[in-house]
C-alpha cells in the first residue's frame, strides 16, 4: 500500500520494470555516474509548488532515513543530490550504479509531503480494512480525460490470515490474494486444475539458513560446510510441488545479468550420498578431536523458524536430512538463542551487491566476514567495471569460504488471481503494484 499511496522519482510496473513517476524522464551521463531527472508538472499534496529543491530535500531525507539498513548500504555510492534549474534533479555517484533506477523505485525511497500521499492512489480506512482509489489523471502526471472515472475501480484491501484469505477467494468474495510465501503454500491448491489461479513469481533473492552463533557443530567454517553439504535441495522443493524452483549452493543467485562466471555451484561432481558421507566423517573427526566428549548439546542445532504449515514441512525435512550426518535439529525457543535463522528475502535488484550487503557485519544479523566487507568496499570505489566484478566475486568467495550462510535456492512467492483481474503479472521481484489493478482497460 505504501507504493500505491507514496510516490518516488520512478516506480515499478506490473512486469517489474522501471517507469516514470514524479520524474517523467531521465538520462544518464558521465559513464553512468550522473543521473539527471526532469520532474513532471505538478504540485505537492499540500498545494505547494513541487520544485527541484523541494524534491532534493525529500529524497535526501529518504536516503538519510535508510542509514544503518541493508538498503542504505545499497545506496552508498550516492555522493550528492543536486537541485538544478528548470525542475531538474541530479544524482551524482562515486562510481557507476546500473541499478540506481531500480533502487529509487523502492517504496522506502518515496518522497513524502505533510499534505498527504504523493502516490497514484488515495487511501481511506474503514472497519473492514482500507479502500484505495486512483487520483485524477493530472494528479498522476497524465492528461485529463472527461470519462476517466469510467475506466477505474476502487481496490478494497483486507489484511487476513492465509487460510481465511484462501477460503474467501474460493468463495468468490476476493479476487486477488497477495503475499503468499512458502509457509502458506500448502494451503493453496497448486495442482494442474489450479493453473492460472495460483501464480508463482520467478523471484530471485535469499532462501536458506543464516548462522547466528559459532558453537558446537557450527563452530568452524569446515563444520558449517558439512551442514551445507548434507542438504538435498531438490528434495526440499519436492515436498511443495513447485515447478521451476531454482536450487543453488551460491550466496549470489545464479544466472544474474552480467555474471562474470567466476563463482560456480559447489559440489557438482558429487552425489548427495557422497556429500553426506564426507559431512558425517568430518563431524565424526571433530567429535574424536574433542576426546569423544562432544555431548548431545554440541551435536544439536537450534533453528529460528515459524510454525506455518509450509515451514513445519521444511523444518521436518531439514531435521530428517541433518539426522543422517549425526546432527539433531530443534526449534529455537527465541531468536536470541537460535544457532540458525531462516532467511526468506526477495532481492530489491538483480546484482551481486544486493546479496553481499545482506551479510554486512554492520547489520549484526549473525556471523559475517570482515574480509568480504572489505572487498565490497573496495569494489564500490573501483571505477573499472571488470575489476569491480572481480572484487565482488572475491567477496562472494569469502562469504562462501566462511560458510556464514547455507543457501537452499530462490525464495517462493505466490498469489491467487482470478481470471478477470487486469494489471497483474508475475515478476522476479514479487511486487505487484495496486494502481495497475485499479485500471479498467478501454
Automatic annotation (TrEMBL):
Keywords: Signal, Transport. SUPFAM superfamilies: Periplasmic binding protein-like II. GO terms for biological process: peptide transport. Belongs to the bacterial solute-binding protein 5 family. InterPro entries: SBP_5, SBP_5_dom. GO terms for cellular component: cell envelope. It comes from the Bacteria. This is Peptide ABC transporter substrate-binding protein. Residues 17-329 form the Solute-binding protein family domain. Its main location: periplasm. Pfam families: SBP_bac_5 (PF00496). It is found in: Periplasm. GO terms for molecular function: peptide transmembrane transporter activity. It comes from Alteraurantiacibacter aestuarii.
Amino acid at each position: 500500500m505504501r507504493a500505491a499511496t507514496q510516490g518516488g522519482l520512478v516506480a515499478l510496473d506490473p512486469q517489474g520494470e522501471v517507469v516514470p513517476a514524479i520524474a517523467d524522464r531521465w538520462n544518464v551521463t558521465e559513464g553512468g555516474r550522473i543521473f539527471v531527472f526532469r520532474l513532471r508538472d505538478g504540485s505537492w499534496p499540500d498545494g505547494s509548488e513541487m520544485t527541484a529543491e523541494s524534491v532534493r530535500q525529500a529524497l535526501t531525507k529518504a536516503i538519510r532515513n535508510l542509514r544503518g539498513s541493508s538498503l542504505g548500504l545499497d545506496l552508498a555510492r550516492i555522493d550528492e543530490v543536486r537541485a538544478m534549474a528548470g525542475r531538474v534533479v541530479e544524482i551524482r555517484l562515486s562510481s557507476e550504479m546500473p541499478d540506481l533506477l531500480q533502487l529509487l523505485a523502492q517504496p522506502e525511497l518515496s518522497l513524502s509531503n505533510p499534505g498527504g500521499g504523493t502516490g497514484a492512489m488515495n487511501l481511506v480506512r474503514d472497519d473492514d480494512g482500507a479502500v484505495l482509489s486512483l487520483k485524477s489523471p493530472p494528479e498522476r502526471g497524465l492528461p485529463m480525460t472527461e470519462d476517466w472515472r469510467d475506466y477505474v475501480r476502487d481496490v478494497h484491501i483486507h489484511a487476513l490470515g492465509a487460510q481465511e484469505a484462501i477460503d474467501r477467494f474460493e468463495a468468490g468474495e476476493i479476487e486477488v490474494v497477495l503475499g503468499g510465501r512458502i509457509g502458506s503454500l500448502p494451503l493453496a491448491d497448486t495442482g494442474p486444475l489450479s493453473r492460472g489461479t495460483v501464480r508463482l513469481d520467478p523471484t530471485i533473492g535469499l532462501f536458506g539458513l543464516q548462522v547466528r552463533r559459532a558453537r558446537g557443530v557450527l563452530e568452524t567454517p569446515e563444520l558449517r560446510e558439512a551442514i551445507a553439504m548434507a542438504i538435498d535441495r531438490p528434495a526440499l522443493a519436492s515436498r511443495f510441488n513447485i515447478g521451476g524452483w531454482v536450487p543453488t549452493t551460491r550466496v549470489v543467485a545464479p544466472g544474474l545479468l552480467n555474471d562474470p562466471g567466476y563463482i560456480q555451484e559447489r559440489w557438482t561432481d558429487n552425489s548427495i550420498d557422497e556429500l553426506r558421507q564426507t559431512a558425517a566423517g568430518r563431524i565424526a573427526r571433530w567429535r574424536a578431536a574433542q576426546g569423544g566428549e562432544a555431548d548431545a548439546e554440541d551435536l544439536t542445532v537450534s533453528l529460528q523458524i515459524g510454525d506455518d504449515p509450509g515451514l513445519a514441512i521444511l523444518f521436518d525435512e531439514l531435521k530428517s536430512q541433518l539426522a543422517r550426518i549425526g546432527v539433531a535439529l530443534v526449534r529455537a525457543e527465541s531468536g536470541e538463542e537460535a544457532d540458525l535463522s531462516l532467511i526468506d528475502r526477495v532481492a530489491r535488484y538483480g546484482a551481486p551487491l544486493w546479496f553481499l550487503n545482506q551479510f554486512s557485519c554492520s547489520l549484526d544479523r549473525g556471523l559475517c566476514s570482515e574480509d568480504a566487507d572489505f572487498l565490497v568496499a573496495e569494489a564500490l570505489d573501483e571505477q573499472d567495471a571488470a575489476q569491480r566484478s572481480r572484487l565482488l566475486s572475491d567477496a562472494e568467495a569469502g562469504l562462501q569460504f566462511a560458510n556464514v550462510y547455507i543457501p537452499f535456492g530462490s525464495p517462493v512467492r505466490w498469489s491467487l488471481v482470478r481470471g478477470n483481474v487486469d494489471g497483474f503479472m508475475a515478476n522476479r521481484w514479487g511486487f505487484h503494484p495496486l494502481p495497475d489493478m485499479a485500471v479498467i482497460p478501454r
